[in-house]
Amino acid sequence: MAFFDLPLAQLRDYRPALDQPDDFDAFWSRTLTAARKHDLAAEVTPYDALLPGVRVSDVRFSGYDGQRVAAWLVEPAIGDRPLPCVVQFIGYGGGRGRPHEWLLWPAAGYAVLVVDSRGQGDGDTPDLPGDNTPHHNGLMTRGVLDPETYYYRRLFTDAVRAVDLASTLPAVDPGRIVVAGASQGGGIAQAVAGLHRQVRAALIDVPFLTCFRRATEITDSYPYQELSNFCAANRDRVEQVFHTLGYFDGGHFAARATAPALYSVGLMDDVCPPSTVFAAYNHYAGPKRMQVWPYNRHEGGGSFQTPVQLPWLRDQLA
Fold it and tell me: In angstroms, rounded to a whole number, what is the distance separating the alpha carbons of residues 54 and 111?
């Protein structure tokens, strides 16, 4: 994929007007208030991953509507407590995976809470009660005709509750909670940064779920193509679809976020086009920095992004 979006000089200034629903804040206040009426009811069970350098726990807690969400807590086996904690969110179609996949942050001296994505991955967290079959795609349009029933209302609420949970864990310093993720995970981290005031810093890589309408207009790649296909089949409901998506657009959350954020973007990314990433970044209300990877696609910086994140995060949490 060659450069297909705006030139970098224009991207740095690209700040489209926000087209958010009038009741955006009321919607999310009501959603989160309802979720917090349910006790977190955290279950933290030691898990033998045969990794003596870390402590691993299988974690379950109450998310949207009190429904149970799975997570891993991985922390260094030795060292002082409490620890800063990275709350890690996952890309589209993935789940929490296995503990050995999440050793970076404990190796750097952090705890990491790896939050499962309901209805995705291997099915540890069903989307809805009685629905134990994980989905690999199709979630972009699940319930999309009504913000009350849209899939990402449930997923974003789970993510906010995960930060609530992290702040209660004995191993975690509640004043040093970081949200992180790439692609869908980056979009979730961006949303939580705008919804939860306890977030100390945010690592937002090649974020998905941002500037939906523009994304469908300039890329044929999935998952945004799921929305395009739905609109093609439901020609009379296009505006209804984008009205719902207005409650979940990353730019609207970014405009409410105050924690320092480190973003990344790939200028050849046809999955999450760079103009959609910059649209949210340029609206981000807190201190921010953008790491640009000119010749990369949706992998963004990959392993090259980690050496950028580690010193930046060390400085934020000092």
Answer: 10
Contact 57, 49 (CB under 8 A): no
The response to whether 92 counts as a known ligand-binding position is yes
Using DSSP's 3-state secondary structure scheme, residue 109 falls into: coil
Q: What is the pLDDT of residues 18-36, one digit of tens each?
A: 999 999 999 999 999 999 9
Q: How many CB atoms lie within 10 A of CB 294?
A: 11
Query: pLDDT tens digits for 270-294?
Result: 999 999 999 999 999 999 999 999 9
State which amino acid sits at residue 92.
Y
Instruction: Render pLDDT for 181-209 as a digit per residue (tens, 0 to 9).
Output: 999 999 999 999 999 999 999 999 999 99
Buried b (16+ CB within 10 A) or exposed e, 34-48: ebeeeebeeebeeee
Give dist(CA 186, CA 301) in Å, integer: 13
Angle among Cα 39, 158, 38 to the nearest 5 degrees reads 15
Query: Residue ranges of the domains in the chain?
Result: 8-317
The DSSP bridge partners found for residue 83 are 172
Q: State residue 137's pLDDT score.
A: 77
Binned at pLDDT 50, 70 and 90, residue 1 comes out as: low
What are residue 203's DSSP bridge partners? 180, 262
Which residue in 208, 202, 187 sits closest to 253, CA to CA?
Answer: 187
Q: Which CATH superfamily is domain 8-317 in?
A: Alpha/Beta hydrolase fold, catalytic domain (3.40.50.1820)
ω into 82 cis (within 30 of 0): yes
Share of the chain above pLDDT 70, in %: 100
Place of tokens 């050849």: 268
Q: Tell me which residues are annotated as active site.
A: 183, 269, 298
- Contact between 187 and 181 under an 8 Å Cβ cutoff? The reply is yes
Helix (H) or strand (E) holding 46: strand 43-46
Q: Provide the pLDDT confidence category of residue 131 given band limits of 50, 70 and 90.
A: confident
Buried b / exposed e along 223-232 (16+ C-beta atoms within 10 A): bbbbbbebbe
